[in-house]
Design goal:
By secondary structure, the chain is of the alpha/beta class. The chain is built from 5 helices and 14 strands.
């Protein structure tokens, strides 16, 4: 069951009343006036808490039009055991996200598409927060708020891969990653403002990682092999991945739709040889100059 929560319309009575929409379909759309696939109910805070406890809710979308509504809804949801909360906020307004610190029992928070917000909130205070996803919110630049958090899965992308495909997210300093002791799954798609060596050395020090997801062309084939040699067994650093009936070779300007399995195996052998060569090399290879 998927659910969204919003404040009632202005002509609805009762301050302690919230509109709750329910649907079985994950791809529902919400707005201030409701949801295209939801049946709506009106609950008080107490009624909603009882409902949430009985239904063991997993996915909730918050619909807020302003900072005050976001704060009120965060307070309503603060003591409920909900796995994933997605704040649906106006993409053209600069929201204060600090009320999300009240989500004490939420394991996952996802924020998608906002052109105005510049700051997040101190996630070290969300003690049960294990997963955070930020997509297409490209005016956020300071991610020190992630430090000392319990987040295990982190996704930061500067595009949504539906209407935008080129990242516009700038993160000059990735040192906050070193202060996330429980981080195991990292997905990044950002603008490269630093040298390749900076990113390679940074990622190579994240030895607790189990999964690292980067754009295929973020590094060269040789650089990915160096990184794989220094992060053995990390998922996402394989020499190729299967996409439907074709194979995508990892690395800048490598084939993306290869169908010849013999050539794929040749790339794999070359990759393994590079990994063996780079295993004891602390200096990452440089990207070749453009001809």
């Amino acid at each position: 069951m998927y659910i969204y929560v919003r404040n009632p319309d202005s002509n609805d009575s009762g301050k302690d009343t919230y509109v709750v929409g329910l649907t079985e379909q994950k791809d529902f759309r919400t707005s201030r006036r409701g949801c295209d696939k939801c049946k709506e109910y009106t609950f008080t805070t107490e009624q909603f808490h009882k409902y949430a406890a009985n239904k063991q809710l997993k996915y909730v979308r918050i619909v807020a039009e302003n900072n005050e509504e976001l704060r009120q809804l965060a307070e309503v949801l603060s003591d409920t055991n909900i796995y994933n909360i997605w704040p649906r906020i106006d993409p053209y307004k600069n929201f204060d996200l600090s009320p999300l610190v009240l989500l004490n029992n939420t394991a996952s928070i996802s924020i998608y598409y906002n052109l105005k917000i510049t700051k997040l909130w101190d996630m070290s205070k969300n003690r049960r927060l294990e997963c955070f996803r930020l997509s297409d919110c490209n005016h956020v630049s300071d991610f020190s708020c992630l430090m000392h958090s319990n987040i295990e899965e982190l996704t930061l992308t500067g595009c949504n891969y539906l209407s935008s495909f080129t990242s516009k997210l700038h993160i000059d300093d990735l040192s906050f990653l070193f202060e996330m002791p429980k981080l195991k799954d990292l997905a990044l798609d950002i603008v490269k403002d630093q040298s390749d060596a900076y990113y390679l050395k940074t990622f190579s020090k994240l030895t607790n990682l189990r999964v690292l997801t980067l754009p295929d062309g973020f590094f060269t084939f040789e650089q990915y092999a160096w990184l794989a040699a220094h992060l053995p067994g990390v998922e996402g650093l394989e020499p190729y991945r299967e996409v439907y009936d074709t194979y995508c070779i990892i690395g800048y300007r490598k084939p993306r739709e290869l169908t010849d399995m013999k050539k794929v195996k040749q790339y794999e052998q070359q990759y393994n040889e590079l990994m063996a060569m780079y295993k004891d090399c602390d200096i990452p290879p440089e990207k070749p100059c453009k001809k």
